[in-house]
UniProtKB/TrEMBL annotation, chains A, B:
One of its GO terms (molecular function) is DNA binding. It comes from Paenibacillus ehimensis. Gene3D superfamilies: 3.40.50.2300, lambda repressor-like DNA-binding domains. PANTHER family: LACI-RELATED TRANSCRIPTIONAL REPRESSOR, RIBOSE OPERON REPRESSOR. PROSITE patterns: HTH_CROC1 (PS50943), HTH_LACI_1 (PS00356), HTH_LACI_2 (PS50932). The keyword Transcription applies. Keywords: DNA-binding, Repressor, Transcription, Transcription regulation. Residues 4-47 form the HTH cro/C1-type domain. Residues 3-57 form the HTH lacI-type domain. Pfam families: LacI, Peripla_BP_1. This is LacI family DNA-binding transcriptional regulator.
Length: 324, 324
DNA sequence: ATGAAAGCGCTAACAT
DNA sequence: ATGTTAGCGCTTTCAT
């Protein structure tokens, strides 16, 4: 059998309460006792049972993370930072991939609650506002402002949109495409689109908006989208892609069509993901690390019952590289 | 307060045992009773406490996943599939990023054990064989054969190495570089290197092997490595990169140096990750999805006390694309 | 400073 | 078919 606190108590010749006390370092313990207890634990290879602890304390030190797709570099990098800070503060991470499937997202929320997680970071948003409101668990959202009462971490999508569009205008593009995933998802990312529209509307400039119908991240789908864009609008000379991954597709398609980047077509991406192949891409960099850090920080503060800002919008940065 | 099984029992007018029974659908329950219980649960918005269940059953339905870095696309994609199958079988995933830090990896193992996970999938391997042997928990490793007694899932690294090297030879490369991360990590990936050496040794061919010293995945480090390679060996006309990410760095450096790919330098990668920018890359594709699926499957079988194969080597596939 | 005992929410013999 | 009872391993009042 597995060694429990009781075995240690018997071995040392004290009560379980005392063992629990030294385990949690509460109350007055003589150094001699402490030493004996630690020795016994060492000797018997004791490992505390977190499940029992959590049940008794009503606190699990686990946080749930729900995102659309961990294999997408943006979320991969975000998750890396979230894990880092969670671990640093003694929290474990339960990873939930929704694949932007509403049913799975809902099931995961119930599962997380049943698992008694102390809080949830939501980066996937397929449900209705009402459903989110009924979660009743410490919550921080990424990139979607669900309601005034749920804290949200995002970066400045509107400014990012302006920066990217202005860059293309400054580079004298005459017909610009805005390319994105599904805009109906109510994400703050839509503001990039709005900023784009606003900027190009005033100018004597052609523009076109194209989005995928799918909610997922299918590279094949992206490929078709890009191909279609250039078929329908061969005179495009500037593309604002709402993710770096999409931008890479655009560059690839340009290469296939023999269009020189940036001479014939200028391309600006979004996200600032770090990955081979994006080094030379002009893009709007989101502070992914900072976003992950704050998401954890605010969630933990909320768990601790402290007040936290309900809206956090971090600055973005335009990176001008070789594709514009 | 939170609703418990006891509240339901009182409401329905039966004992908690009965409620537990319908919750787990064990024994004989009259339909009428079931219905009443479900109604009460619905009405009171009851949510079972998985912590209590796990403690009592001595089974948590959580599996731990330890990998070096979730932001690396190979692991991101692997994790996506692992999560998918785990979820499908009613298991939750605890994500642990080791960052190839030995201390963190060890701490995570203890943490997972303390959290009573039912098993661990290990994709990070910085500790000694002896330490792994002492884990005493259902275990499946990815890409490292720790001992004959611990099941390992991998793909055929040796054949992959042969395929990639032969491709470069077939394309008449005269001086080939093998580029990789740290080879000391005892990973099966080292077999790619061995296969490479074996193939080029017999031929009248120049070759050079270069590896990073670092244990992490630093893109900057990769960049330096590649730059250095071409400075020291400007006559390289073929590169076998042991990951697609590295291969992308090579291609980028070639572009910077004005070397045409594939005309002047042929590049073959490894992994077959799906991400913008790798579409045109010649590479050796690992069956990432299948590997993830089997890792989960074998872990669950092991948890169930069944016998499973101790060594699983899946076939790889050469994808000949535009960079060779 | 240390212990007894109740309890966290649920499961599982064993009874009836 | 349903109930009684004793845990699961740990924490936490309340005593002493």
């Amino acid at each position: 059998m597995v060694v429990t606190i009781k075995d240690i108590a018997e071995k040392v010749g004290v009560s379980v309460t005392t063992i629990s006390r030294v385990l949690n370092n509460r109350g007055y313990l003589s150094d001699d006792l402490k030493k004996k207890v630690y020795e016994a634990m060492e000797e018997m290879n004791y490992q505390p049972n977190e499940l029992a602890r959590s049940l008794s304390r009503k606190k699990s030190n686990v946080i749930g993370l729900i995102i659309p797709d961990i294999s997408h570099p943006f979320f991969g990098q975000m998750t890396k930072h979230i894990e880092f800070y969670a671990y640093k503060h003694g929290y474990k991470l339960m990873l939930c991939n929704s694949l932007l499937n509403k049913k799975k997202e809902k099931e995961y929320i119930d599962l997380l609650r049943a698992s008694q997680v102390d809080g949830i970071i939501m980066g996937s948003h397929t449900m209705s506002v009402k459903e989110y409101m009924s979660i009743k668990l410490p919550l921080v959202t990424l990139d979607r402002q669900i309601s005034k009462s749920i804290p949200c971490i995002s970066s400045d999508n509107y400014s990012g949109g302006i920066l990217a569009t202005k860059l293309l205008l400054r580079k004298k593009c005459r017909k610009i495409a805005y390319l994105s995933g599904n805009l109906r998802l109510n994400l703050l990312a839509k503001q990039r689109h709005d900023a784009f529209i606003e900027q190009v509307s005033g100018e004597d400039i052609g523009f076109v908006v194209k989005q995928t119908d799918l909610n997922g991240f299918k590279y094949k789908e992206y490929e078709n989208l890009v191909r279609q864009l250039f078929e329908e609008h061969p005179d495009i000379d500037g593309v604002f892609a709402s993710s770096d991954i999409l931008a890479l597709q655009v560059i690839k398609e340009c290469r296939r069509l023999g269009k020189a980047v940036p001479d014939q077509v200028k391309v600006v991406g979004y996200d600032g993901i770090q990955i081979g192949g994006t080094d030379d891409l002009s893009t709007v960099e989101q502070p992914i690390k900072k976003m992950g850090e704050l998401a954890v920080k605010y969630l933990l503060r909320q768990i601790a019952g402290e007040e936290i800002p309900l809206e956090t919008i971090l600055p973005v940065k335009l990176l001008e590289k070789g594709t514009t």
